[in-house]
Each structure stands twice: as C-alpha cells, then as structure tokens.
Design a protein that fits this description.
Number of helices: 8
CATH topology: NADH Oxidase
Strand order of the largest sheet: 1-2-4-3
Distance between the termini: 27 Å
Oligomer: single chain
Strand content: 5-15%
Order of helices and strands: HHEHHEHHEHEH
Length: about 200
C-alpha cells in the first residue's frame, strides 16, 4: 500500500491547473512520464496512445488557432502541451506487443471491424492518458487537461499522414496556485456506485 502522502499527490490534493510558474519541464521528465505510462495495462497490450509534446514557440503558434478562446492563454504560457492521441491502426503493432498470439491483429482488420478497432483504440488510449496524468503528478508536475479545440484541425496539423486522431490536450508544468479555481464538489459513493 502506498502512503497517504502519495494518494494526496495523485488524487486528493491534485488540481487541474490554469496558470503556470516560469519553471521549465525537461525532456528527461517527459521521457520519465512515458517510461511509467507504458507499464499501465491496456487490452491485449495494444498501447494505442500517441503523444506530441508541444514545447517550442513554433509549435505553440501552430496550436494557437486550433484552441477555443478560453484555452489560449493557459496553453501559450504552459511549458509543455501534450497532444494525447490514439492510433486507429494500433493493431499493426500487435504481433510485437502481444507475441503469444500473433494473429491478434486479425481481430481488428477489415472494413467490418473498423468500428471495433476505433472503440478499442479510443478506450485504451483514454486509459493511458489517465495513467499519463498520474505519472506526471507522480514525478512532481502539474496537469491541465483540456477539451475545447478544433479536433479536425488538430489532426491535420499535428497528425497529418498518420492513423492517429486527437483525444484531448494536457498542459504540463508547475502550476500557479494563485490561478486555481475553487475546488468543485464530487459525487458521493451512493450517487455514483451501486452493487449488483
């Protein structure tokens, strides 16, 4: 069992940040996040999440026109913005990632299986994106996950010529506590859960 302080870092005291302190995020930290995320479970080890780390001024300017107005300032000032995507053709890697059943990719290929492949990619990449935020918090970074962007434009600008689509964005850095919103309530167990 991990200590209470770790649970605070990962969940109870963690916040979605909207403003950032002028502290850098290193490439080594971004690699560390991936090196943790890759061990999180996905169905048949399919690992469909793909990430573009936007951390240059040029990259931010490509990103700027694709953001909804409320997301521009917090993204332009973030040290890094992770574009979290999902590879709709993830199954091409299954012979390597799931070697004890090399034919597993056949479960996802062909026009009649396209919807199944898409659901699998989105579901498992979303799991990995959650692991991504927990990993970032675990190594001392703050996260600012966001919807509110032109998805088609994002795909065209950052994933052009690939089978990857954008899931959501997550700013990374050291959050400015002065720019946090008040903590919002959460559903109680009785409201969100039941036994069967």
């Amino acid at each position: 069992m991990i200590p209470d302080s770790a649970l605070d870092t990962l969940f109870r005291q963690a916040r979605s940040h909207n403003g950032w302190l002028p502290r850098p995020v290193s490439e080594a930290q971004l690699r560390q996040i991936h090196d943790l995320v890759k061990w999180g479970p996905t169905s048949a080890n399919c690992s469909p999440m793909r990430v573009v780390f936007v951390r240059t001024d040029e990259g931010r300017e490509r990103l700027r026109p694709l953001l909804s107005p409320g997301n521009v300032e917090k993204t332009m000032t973030a040290p890094v913005t992770a574009i979290l995507g999902f590879d709709t053709a993830f199954y091409r890697e299954l012979p390597r990632l799931f070697p004890h059943r090399p034919s597993m990719q056949d479960d996802f290929t062909g026009p009649e299986k396209e919807a199944h492949a898409l659901r699998t990619a989105f579901r498992n990449a979303s799991l990995q994106a959650a692991y991504f935020m927990l990993a970032a918090r675990a190594i001392g970074l703050d996260c600012g996950p966001m919807s509110g962007f032109d998805a088609d434009g994002m795909d065209q600008t950052f994933w052009h010529g690939t089978s990857v689509r954008t899931n959501f964005l997550c700013n990374l850095g050291h959050g400015d506590p002065a720019k946090l919103f008040d903590r919002h309530p959460r559903l109680a167990f009785e409201e969100a859960c039941r036994f069967a």
